[in-house]
Design a protein that fits this description.
4-stranded antiparallel sheet, 12 strands, 2 domains, single chain, alpha+beta, 6-stranded antiparallel sheet
Length: about 350
């Protein structure tokens, strides 16, 4: 494909045709806007089913759980969202090693050279719109793993990846199958040394959570409350105005960092956090005004947050009146990690 064609917006016919072709191969597909589900969420914060329902209610609007191989439904979905990118559910027929940009490519190459004998991972391969790769491999049954290597994620059960001929929401470039490495290529295999990194290890006595943290419980009300509070904080962040700078980028970084702390601790779901942060960044105008900077801010916050896991705090000490004293003004209600240096991606908006 020529350089011009690589940045040409795919037509509705191309996108619909690709979705139908994937579905006919038994791959569950869903429409995505950019990288987020195109179907509006069925449940909003405050709804008892928010973050709990996976489609049992019978309505669409449950992210990856809307993915389908029903050709009639696929036609209906792309009739309603004709410009939607195509998402493929992972963990069913394949898992995907998601290599983010040149940094991820270098990170994976170094890891394989140092630990895997330098042997590349075979199988179907997509050149992503960000300059990275999607490597399609045989499902391992192992869980999704964000940051298995620097700028490398492992997409497995209950996740999805954007597939060709979709268009990257920031670079504008298409996702492209590498010539000779399409889905008719036998799936690659996860190297044993990488599989070992992906395999969860039991927590021993020497690695129990700190005394101030209770064991993480996905779906715990604490996590949902923090998520709602941080998203609201982003939505209310002050934009730049005459004679003054804005605070949106700073607030976005801090809120995202706090939420990814809890993702690393197992309290929140990473895909849900990412989707909510990007929606909030769109609501407050950052994705419209500063799309590249905003994505860099989110990537930076994710890297820092995931490196410092936080669980559910112990209940604060009780005051004289029998009421819990709030420990922090931060919306997350826990002391967040503070980097020693000022991160360039948190620079004040101009």
């Amino acid at each position: 494909m020529s350089a011009h064609a690589a940045v040409t917006r795919p037509s509705p016919q191309e996108l619909r045709g690709a979705a139908l072709e994937y579905a006919s191969m038994g791959i569950p597909v869903l429409p995505v806007r950019g990288k987020l589900p195109a179907i509006p969420a069925a449940h909003q914060p405050g709804d008892p089913l928010y973050q709990q329902c996976k489609g049992e209610c019978g309505d669409l609007g449950h992210g990856v759980h809307d993915a389908t191989t029903d050709l009639a439904q696929v036609r209906q979905l792309w009739d309603q969202w004709p410009q939607a990118n195509v998402g493929l559910r992972t963990g069913v027929l394949f898992d995907v090693i998601d290599v983010d940009g040149q940094q991820g490519r270098d990170s994976l190459a170094r890891f394989l050279a140092d630990h895997g004998g330098g042997r590349p991972i075979g199988g179907p391969r997509v050149h992503t719109g960000s300059g990275g790769w999607h490597l399609y491999v045989t499902p391992t049954g192992l869980p999704d793993h964000i940051g298995v290597l620097q700028s490398v994620d492992y997409r497995a059960a209950d996740r999805y990846v954007v597939a060709p001929p979709s268009r990257h929401p920031v670079s504008g470039r298409r996702y492209l199958w590498v010539p000779g490495r399409g889905l008719d290529t036998p799936l690659g295999e996860v190297p044993q040394v990488l599989r070992e990194r992906l395999t969860p290890r039991p927590v021993g006595r020497d690695h129990q959570p700190a005394a101030t943290l209770r064991p993480a419980q996905p779906g715990h009300p604490y996590g949902r409350a923090v998520l709602e509070a941080e998203i609201a904080r982003i939505a209310g962040a002050r934009p730049p105005g005459p004679g003054r700078g804005g605070e949106r980028n700073q607030v976005l970084w801090e809120a995202a960092r706090n939420l990814y702390n809890l993702v690393a601790g197992g309290v929140l779901d990473q895909a849900e956090v990412t989707a909510e942060l990007e929606r909030a960044a769109g609501t407050c105008g950052l994705l419209r005004d500063e799309p590249r900077q905003t994505m860099r801010t989110l990537a930076s916050a994710r890297q820092v947050g995931l490196a410092h896991p936080r669980g559910i705090p112990d209940r604060p000490t009780t005051g004289g009146r029998g009421r819990d004293r709030p420990r922090q003004q931060d919306a997350s209600h826990h002391q967040p990690f503070q980097p020693r240096r000022r991160d360039p991606d948190r620079a004040r908006e101009r």
